[in-house]
Each structure stands twice: as C-alpha cells, then as structure tokens.
C-alpha cells in the first residue's frame, strides 16, 4: 500500500516534476510523485524527444537525397512511416525505462492517477487524499487551440502528428513558431508539400528578426510555402480533404491541417483556484522564487509564465527543491535560458535580441553578423546561415543568435558568454579548434572586438 503522506508531493512527472522529486530525495526528503500518464511527461512522450527523433529521420532522408553531391552514390526511395514510428518509439521507450529506474533508485513513491489539489497541503488522487508539508505543481501544458477551429479528423495537433503512420501529400500548418517550423521541416523532408500560415509578420517571431529572415529564405529554397500576416477565416473538412480559407480570400485544399499555435498551461480542473492558488490567464502566479499564493505550494515549468522549455522546467524543479530545503539557490534567470529550434536549418539563441537590447540600453548597443559562408566546416557540411552577436554597455555580450545546421551544438558556449557577462574583446582572445562551427562564433567575437579576420566587407 502506498504511503498517504510525505515531506514533498509533486503533482506532475514531466521535466520539472521529476527533477524536483529527484533533487528533493537527494536532499533527504520523503517524496511522492503523482503522474496521470507516463513518467517524463510531454517532453519525453509528446514533445522534445519524439519530435527530434522525427527530425533526425528527416535529416537522414535529406542526406540520402543529396548524397551524390558528396560523391556518394545512394538512392532515396521514400519514407516507411511505420518504421519511422518504430524508431521513434524505441528511443522514447528506452529513455522512459531509464527514467523509471532512476526515480525508483531514489526511493520516490510514484502514484499513477489524475491528481487534484484539494487543500494547501493535500492532493487527491482517484479519491485518495495524500498529505504533504510542501507541494510542487508541475502539470505542464497541452496544445493550444484556435477559437472556432475544431480539432478532429483531418485537423490535428502535434500530439496526433507525432503518431501518424502515413506522410501527408499536402499539409497546412497553422502557426510559424517553434512547433510549426519543426513539423514543416520534417514533413517537407519526408516529401510533403507544406504551407505555413502565420498571423504575425514573420516566422519564429520570438527570435531575433535576422534569424527569421534567414529561416524564411531557407524555407523558400526548400519549397516550403510561408504566408505571414495571414489569418484563417474558416477550416472545413470532408472525407477527402480539408480546406483552409484565409482572410485574403485564398483557399488551400490539403490532406491535413496541423494546429501549432503554441501550448496552454495545463491548469484546468486541477483544483488550483478552489484550493487558493491564484491563476492569471490560466498560468499559476508565483513570486520570483516560484512560490504561489499558498506559501507551502510552489509551481514550475509550463504552468508558470515564461518560455515553455523542458530545460527551463527542469532547472526550476531543481531550484524549488533546494529552496524548500533552505539552501537559498540563485533565482533562475529567464533571459539566460538558451533556446533551440531544431528545424533544417537550426536556430539557437540566448539572451536579448537586437530590438530588445536597444529598448533596454538605447543606443549603447553594437551588433555584428558573421555569415557562415566564411566558415570551413559549414562549407564541408554544406550549410548556410549566420551568427549574430548583440553587445551592450561596456562591451558585454548580451545576446547570441545563430542559424545553420548543427548550431545547437554552439549554444553551450553562447550561454556562458551571456550568463557570465563576458566582454566580447576578452572572449575573442580564446582559440577555437579548426575546422569547427565554433570558429564562426570566434570570428563573430573577433569582428565585434574590432579585429575581423575572415569577415568580408
């Protein structure tokens, strides 16, 4: 029989929840972790991991198509969507098994069922009340819907898109943010004719404008159609197709419509407000130490306003467990959290965009953009793109924005530059191995320090 009380009860077993549970156990607390589905949550089962598995399969497909330009004779004969699913599921299942074992090894009690907050120290699971000294809310997010557009049939969310055992011939993706461009990239590589419809003026509107322009050019080369500043008037479907009518009057007839307009906090019917937890627009309101309006209740991850990123939730989970233990950890700085969009090409960024920096620092801002055409490794792997540095007062790097294949591998160095408030001139002194993509970041640092080497006028 499972225990009915613990020092810490964590509601939600995703990235933020299991991180909080494990670290709390390491700090000597008794922990009960409540999860309705499988441990790992959205990230492991319906987000980060399965989408990146599909993106890798898409990269392999592109490599097969383009092999001859490297002198390799290969034939691309199509996509076996069932085998792709098997590959994706194998990756997910292995990681799930490892996580389950890790949680068990820390003596954490896992309760499977839908939890609901019923008091400042109580969570109810399928009629059983569990009591805790402190509670961590980590219930994650769900696909956001568009008012007036029903989900079902040929109109799907990312959850369904991840399980498809066929490749759509033609698809419309509503939303040009991270989820939208990643699925557009996958489906285009698999052979679909893809159109992205975005209401804002550019793709990935949360990124620096330079990155948006590069991505839009890259997608045009890949024959991915992009319609920005476009709104959907109607979505209608029958047994054969789904029709999307835009405010311009244009009608797009396709096999599938993917609604990818972001994710909403999973706070409905969780009992939060009834128990005394204040919500704002569906998000749990917290102070800067992630404490809710109930002092003994904390919240982490996608239910807290901010970037909805797995690694943000993970870090917040660690923070909260240490905060509860009295360690007074440093606050997680939202501006220093790295972001990666795993489309083809990739986008990786950290810190302030140029426009945000100019708003904050007025004219005391410098930028430099280094084109990957001058980077040897980029030529070897045949990628194009750029690295943009944003430097604020006193020459400190306040933003790094990168686009190109494999630039995600540079985000570790980039986040150190921003989070440690390194001066560009000091960072430019350090040697980058040759030939690597990292040299491009080094070249950008040299350029903004006034010592360009491979930068063309």
Question: Care to describe what's here?
Answer:
This protein is α/β, with parallel strands linked by helices and 457 residues long. The protein has 14 helices and 24 strands. The strands form six sheets. Strands 1, 2, 3, 4, 5, 6 and 19 form a seven-stranded mixed beta sheet that branches. A five-stranded parallel beta sheet has the order 8-15-9-10-11. The longest helix has 25 residues, at 81-105. The protein is globular.
Describe the structure using short key phrases.
457 residues; alpha/beta; seven-stranded mixed β-sheet; 24 strands
Tally of alpha and pi helices: 14
Low-confidence stretches: none
Overall 3D form: globular
- Rg on CA atoms, Å: 23 Å
Summing up helix and strand content along with how strands pair, one would put the structural category as: alpha/beta
What distance lies between the first and last C-alpha atoms, to the nearest angstrom?
72 Å
Mean pLDDT: 96
- Percent helix: 25-40%
What is the strand content?
Answer: 15-25%
- In total, the number of strands is 24
Biggest sheet record: 7 strands, mixed
How are the elements arranged and paired?
Blueprint lengths: L4 E7 L3 H12 L4 E5 L5 H6 L1 H19 L14 H25 L3 E4 L2 E5 L2 E4 L2 E10 L3 E3 L11 E2 L1 H4 L8 E5 L3 H13 L2 E5 L11 H13 L3 E3 L4 E6 L4 E5 L4 E4 L1 E4 L3 E3 L6 H4 L3 E2 L2 E2 L12 E3 L10 H15 L14 E3 L5 E5 L2 H8 L4 E6 L4 H6 L4 E6 L5 E7 L7 H9 L4 H4 L10 H11 L9
Parallel strand pairs: 1-2, 1-6, 2-3, 6-19, 8-15, 9-10, 9-15, 10-11
Antiparallel strand pairs: 4-5, 5-6, 7-16, 12-13, 13-14, 17-18, 20-21, 21-24, 22-23, 23-24
């Amino acid at each position: 029989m499972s225990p009915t009380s613990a020092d810490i009860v964590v509601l939600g077993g995703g990235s933020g929840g299991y991180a909080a549970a494990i670290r709390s156990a390491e700090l000597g607390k008794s922990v009960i972790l409540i999860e309705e589905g499988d441990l790992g949550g959205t990230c492991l089962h319906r987000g980060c991991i399965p989408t990146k598995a599909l993106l890798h399969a898409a990269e392999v497909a592109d490599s097969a198509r383009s092999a001859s330009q490297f002198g390799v004779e290969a034939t691309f004969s199509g996509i076996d969507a069932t085998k792709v699913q098997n590959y994706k599921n194998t990756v997910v299942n292995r990681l799930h098994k490892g996580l389950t074992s890790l949680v068990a090894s820390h003596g954490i009690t896992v309760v499977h069922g839908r939890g609901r907050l019923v008091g400042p120290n109580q969570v109810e699971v399928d009629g059983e009340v569990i009591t805790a000294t402190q509670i961590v809310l980590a219930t994650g997010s769900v696909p956001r819907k568009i008012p007036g557009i029903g989900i079902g049939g040929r109109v799907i969310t990312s959850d369904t898109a991840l399980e498809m055992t066929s490749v759509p011939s033609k698809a419309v993706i509503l939303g040009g943010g991270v989820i939208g461009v990643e699925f557009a990239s996958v489906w285009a590589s698999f052979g679909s004719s893809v159109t992205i419809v975005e209401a804002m003026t550019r793709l990935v509107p949360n990124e620096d404008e330079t990155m948006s322009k590069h991505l839009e050019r890259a997608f045009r080369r890949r024959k991915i159609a992009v319609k920005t500043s476009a709104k959907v008037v109607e979505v209608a479907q029958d047994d054969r197709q789904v029709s999307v009518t835009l405010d311009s009057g244009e009608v797009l007839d396709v096999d599938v419509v993917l609604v990818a307009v972001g994710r909403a906090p999973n706070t409905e019917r969780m009992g939060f407000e009834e128990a005394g937890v204040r919500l704002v627009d569906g998000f749990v309101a917290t102070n800067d130490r992630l404490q809710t309006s109930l002092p003994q209740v904390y919240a982490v991850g996608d239910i807290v306003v901010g970037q909805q990123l797995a690694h943000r939730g993970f870090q917040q989970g660690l923070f909260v467990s240490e905060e509860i233990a009295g360690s007074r950890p440093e606050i997680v700085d939202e501006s220093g959290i790295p972001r990666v969009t795993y489309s083809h090409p990739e986008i990786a960024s950290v810190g302030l965009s140029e426009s945000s920096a100019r708003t904050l620092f007025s004219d005391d801002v410098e930028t430099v953009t280094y084109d990957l055409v001058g980077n040897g490794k980029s030529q070897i792997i045949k990628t194009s793109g750029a690295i943009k540095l944003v430097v604020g007062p006193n020459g400190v790097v306040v933003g790094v924005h990168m686009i190109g294949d494999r630039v995600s591998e540079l985000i570790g160095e980039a986040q150190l530059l921003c989070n440690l408030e390194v001066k560009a001139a000091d960072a430019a002194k350090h040697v980058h191995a040759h030939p690597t993509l990292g040299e491009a970041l080094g070249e950008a640092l040299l350029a903004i320090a006034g010592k360009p080497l491979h930068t063309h006028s």
